[in-house]
Design a protein that fits this description.
The protein is α/β, with parallel strands linked by helices. The chain folds into 2 domains: 16-42 and 77-285, Type I PLP-dependent aspartate aminotransferase-like (Major domain) (Aspartate Aminotransferase, domain 2); 289-427, Aspartate Aminotransferase, domain 1 (Alpha-Beta Complex). It is built from 15 helices and 14 strands. The protein has helices at 3-8, 17-20, 50-60, 82-95, 106-117, 132-141, 158-169, 192-202, 256-269, 275-285, 288-308, 328-334, 349-359, 389-395, 411-423; strands at 9-10, 13-14, 99-103, 123-128, 148-153, 174-180, 210-214, 232-236, 250-254, 312-316, 341-346, 364-365, 375-377, 401-405. The strands form 3 sheets. Strands 3-9-8-7-6-4-5 form a 7-stranded mixed beta sheet, with helices on both faces. Helix 4 runs parallel beside helix 10 and helix 11 runs parallel beside helix 15 (411-423). It binds pyridoxal-5'-phosphate (PLP). The site of pyridoxal-5'-phosphate has 15 residues, from helix 5 and helix 6. Pyridoxal-5'-phosphate is lined by residues 105-107, 131, 133-134, 180, 184, 214, 216, 236, 238-239, 248, 250.
Length: 438
């Protein structure tokens, strides 16, 4: 039995990730018996001998082949630190990934991953809408480095997406496909399996087209892109994984080989997370499944309630997909739950949406998501304001849309709050009547 098998199995039974989040990868004997992994708040590590220091650097800089079971020794906290190594080991469990790399932010993960695999002359294809920061990096910054970027709408039918990938790969320049699904804030789905298959079909022996999936909205509990054929999974750990709106961090997961290359870039870009972030995230991982399950249950209750509300024009929620709907097949195959994000259009356009946002009391008016407290915001003028209005409309982002991240409060309290904020819409002078906005 290998060391990893011993850690994750009792007899023949493979333990679930939630059972391993308190212990996996940590040996109390190395830390005075402390049941919790201490915060290794240190920038550098003492070598036992000069020979050991030399051996550690040989591995770190790839100066020789690693011996069997030889791991990277602790050198300096920009390269590695126990809090981050243990966190990375635990993160691999949910996605069944070979390896993980943690970053000081989700954008750190996305940019370091992009700069690892893209070079001038290469092309990146991505689904839209994506997170605002990702959109800016792909649209404004990568092109300045000679990297061509192109996008397709998450609303496109799968057959059309497959054709777009084939076309984008025809001249041999396509190197990376970046997906975000469910899309933020419309909750439209992209078929991960179909895109991964199309990317493989369009790859050649000397040019593999990699597929990366930003799994922040449903992962790591409710969606596992690597199992669907994707090469890389990216997280803003700031959101559900951190879960308490008190830490910024990110991660990229995948094969040993790809993650080793990403870690090399991370070492020299310096986009590594610190030990304190690592410790906070390990604490958060212990309750991740409990939180995400409760948030998803409440989101369903709220989404169903919103659907019946006369002042709500439309609800964007994967749990409402029905057989025959465009996204239904992808939903059935790739999502284990609809998750905790609900967007909805209210009557009255921007004015109506602002009225509701200004009158919420329990739900806080803030961007970000996935935390224990419920948050609401206005995508058109906040998270997605960098996108021109006509493109927003084309992606399905309306002026009257509110994006709600459901927290762990009592769902009936959240409904009471939404009810009183929506009721006020009747008293304001709205520019357009129900059915006309958006
Ligand atoms: C927040 C977010 C990011 C960026 O993460 P940071 O931790 O804020 O850098 C990327 N993708 C998605 C889907 C996000 O929600």
């Amino acid at each position: 039995m290998s060391e990893k098998d011993r850690a994750v199995k009792i007899g023949d039974r493979r333990l679930s990730p939630e059972s391993l989040m308190m212990s996996y990868g940590y040996d109390p004997a190395l830390s005075e018996g402390a049941i919790k992994c201490p915060i290794f708040q240190t920038s550098t590590f003492v070598f036992k001998s000069a020979e050991e220091g030399k051996a550690f650097f040989e591995v770190a800089y790839g100066l020789r082949e690693r011996k069997i079971d030889e791991s990277l020794g602790l050198i300096y906290s920009r390269l590695n630190n126990p809090d981050l190594e243990i966190l990375e080991d635990r993160l691999t469990l949910w996605d069944d990934a070979e390896a993980a790399a943690v970053f000081e932010s989700g954008m750190g993960a996305i940019s370091t991953t992009a700069y690892t695999f893209l070079r001038p002359g290469d092309r990146l294809l991505y689904s839209e809408p994506v997170y605002g920061g990702t959109q800016y990096l792909f649209n404004h910054i990568l092109p300045e480095f000679g990297i061509e970027t192109a996008s397709f709408r998450a609303t496109e039918p799968t057959a059309r997406v497959e054709a777009i990938i084939e076309e984008a790969a025809a001249d041999g320049k396509l190197r990376l496909i970046h997906l975000e699904t469910p899309a933020n804030p419309t909750n439209h789905l992209v078929d991960i399996e179909a895109v991964s298959r199309a990317a493989k079909a369009a790859s050649s022996d000397d040019r593999k087209i990699l597929v990366a999936v930003d799994n922040t909205f449903l992962g790591p509990v409710f969606q596992h892109p690597l199992k669907l054929g994707a090469d890389l999974v990216i997280y803003s750990l700031t959101k559900y994984v951190g879960g308490h709106s008190d830490v910024i961090a990110g991660a990229t997961l995948g094969s040993e080989e790809l993650v080793a290359r990403i870690k090399e870039t991370r070492t020299f870009f310096g986009s590594m997370a610190g030990p304190w972030s690592g410790w906070l995230l390990m604490r958060s991982l212990e309750t991740l499944k409990l939180r995400m399950t409760a948030q998803a249950e409440s989101a369903r209750i709220i989404a169903d309630w919103l659907l019946e509300h006369p002042l709500v024009e439309r609800v964007y929620y994967p749990g409402h997909l029905k057989e025959g709907d465009d996204d239904y097949e992808a939903y059935r195959r790739q999502c284990l739950s609809p998750g905790g994000m609900v967007s909805f259009d209210v009557v009255g356009g921007e004015k109506g949406a602002f009225h509701v946002l200004n009158h919420l009391r329990l739900v806080k008016l803030a961007v970000s998501l996935g935390g224990t407290e419920s948050l609401a915001q206005h995508p058109a003028s906040m998270t997605h304001s960098d996108i021109p209005p006509e493109d927003q409309r084309d992606m399905g982002i309306t002026e009257s849309m509110i994006r709600l991240s459901v927290g762990v409060e009592d769902p009936d309290d959240l409904i009471a709050d939404l009810e009183q904020a929506l009721a006020g819409l009747l008293s304001i002078d709205v520019p357009d009547s129900p059915g006309e906005s958006g």
